[in-house]
Give the backbone structure.
Amino acid sequence: MHTKTKKERIMYATLKLITEHGFHATPVSMIASEAGVGAGTIYRYFENKEAIINELYDVILKELHEATMANIPEIISVRDEFFLKWRNILNYFIEREYEGKFVSQYVASPFISRTVIYETERRNVHLRKLIERGIKLNEIRDVDYNTIAVYMWGTLKQLHYLHINKAIEITDELINDIYTVFWEGIRVHHDK
Amino acid sequence: MHTKTKKERIMYATLKLITEHGFHATPVSMIASEAGVGAGTIYRYFENKEAIINELYDVILKELHEATMANIPEIISVRDEFFLKWRNILNYFIEREYEGKFVSQYVASPFISRTVIYETERRNVHLRKLIERGIKLNEIRDVDYNTIAVYMWGTLKQLHYLHINKAIEITDELINDIYTVFWEGIRVHHDK
Amino acid sequence: MHTKTKKERIMYATLKLITEHGFHATPVSMIASEAGVGAGTIYRYFENKEAIINELYDVILKELHEATMANIPEIISVRDEFFLKWRNILNYFIEREYEGKFVSQYVASPFISRTVIYETERRNVHLRKLIERGIKLNEIRDVDYNTIAVYMWGTLKQLHYLHINKAIEITDELINDIYTVFWEGIRVHHDK
Amino acid sequence: MHTKTKKERIMYATLKLITEHGFHATPVSMIASEAGVGAGTIYRYFENKEAIINELYDVILKELHEATMANIPEIISVRDEFFLKWRNILNYFIEREYEGKFVSQYVASPFISRTVIYETERRNVHLRKLIERGIKLNEIRDVDYNTIAVYMWGTLKQLHYLHINKAIEITDELINDIYTVFWEGIRVHHDK
DNA sequence: CATGAATGAGGTTTCATTCAT
DNA sequence: GATGAATGAAACCTCATTCAT
């Protein structure tokens, strides 16, 4: 922990505490002591309390994007690329408990700005291209991007939601079941 | 507005303001003046500020349940029952702007309790039965309840999320597209 | 209880609750419900909350005075008259738990007025006469009234204080011991 | 005043104001401005308002104990030791107006705890020993500790009570009178 | 650069009192 | 007369932010 920079320690402390208690139930003083810095120090790195979570959101979304794109082979079927990316995101949310919960809370807050939405769009470009490829190759039906995006993100978020509230256990079987239904829903049925 | 009871006015004012500004950015004094009552009056009807939102959540979930079950004919195909209920929920979330946003925020907050999850389960019993019926009639594949529930709620929430953030426009076409993908994903393909 | 008038019920409820919780920890609403009347009703009988305790104090001091003078034979020695009155007061304080505690709190409060002191003086006139009689009869030493009054009231209050705080048990033996010391302290020693 | 620490200033302001107006008639804001600090500062030093008076009571009782034991020669008669200690306490109460009144109010409040009584007992050990010495030396009669303690404290408190309510003037003559009665009451009469 | 004591605005909540019924 | 719902002033307390060290 102490190998991190002060700024990183502040951000991580904020992430942890906000996730556990919520933004307004986490005083700056609590963040300071969790991070092992003076309260005033926080204001050297961030304009105010809100700026911490905004920067946190940026960093986490960047990480999430990297995690999403990781381990995707150059040559891969549309089906598998969908699956791998979908699993990458799910894994990130599940393995990075605080980050996952944080994002869920952040996007549900009334402070979410148009910018955030725009950024998300920008980061989803690769998904848009994947869909186009699938349609061109006649592997998935010619449905609107939004339709598919709703499926991908909707199931991801709901799985995560049930997971963090301990309503389900995420097993490989469940994962495969859900992905199969997803793929069956969008693929072209070549069988005659 | 003034035909409502004081308690209803307080609850509605809270719903509106919290949805717009968030729980902690909505002082009790603001709720009081929006509701047209004295600040102290609120404490005749609710133990404290938090109790308002808990009761709000209860009331809204009851309403949502009623809306879900409305207009479902006695005799109806599994496909159509799924569709009608799914649309009912979506309509409720979209038509009742404040209620919809409120629920989204509430379930994402770190205060969501096990009780909430349990209540949700209880209210989803009808969905469980519908799935059993579909499987027995060989209309949908024999998949786990959770798999289907994740689909239903995941797509609903994501559509709603994109809607309230003005990222998409919800058209009949989109609705049908999405539902078709959902149904194609779970139905049994009788074609040979 | 319900045979009493409303005013008496209000006063008794106040006496009980204030004694147990203190003046400011006893809301008028609590007094109302303990007395079995509406909160507004209290203001028909008393100008405000403070007026209740002032009237209570008056009533209790009147009662205390009557109790002090009770059962004193016409013809009685100075020693016995002292003793009987002293015991009468002690008994009143001990038997009437709420009244005793109330008076203790009231006289220690910063609101005690000169009037209260004056009233006390007035009610102690009989004690002054008793002392004069004792001196004239050469049964007690020629000491100042205040000296003896300090003794009487000081020991009484302290016994009561220790009693209500359960620091001592008031037995006949203790009573006699204390009174003996008192009497030995003021009597004329006729032995040569 | 400004040479004291902030904590001391807060405590002294509380002592003064509470003594004059009573605990509940003294808002924290009033204490803050009397002490010359911000309202929030008080909560850096004390958990809440009540904690101030509890700590005040502790400090004052420690001071009182020290004052009680001051200026007592190593070799001193039982009579004189009683007298000196009794006078020390009386002087403390009279000279330290606020402290004296504060203690009177505090011990009469309904919040006085068993702990307080226990503490008092502990601090009275020296008195217990003095009584034992007096009895062993056959200077005072073999009376119960409580009997004598009731006398000491009862007269002290009553003198103080009359003093702060301006009902008497405390003169050396009165002091001697009262002490003489006390001593006559407990000493062994060696004259035959 | 870093600190954390100090601040005071503003939060939630209580409660004496009023007044329409 | 009696009620108790309603009020809003004022209480206690928290905490984001500043600034002297």
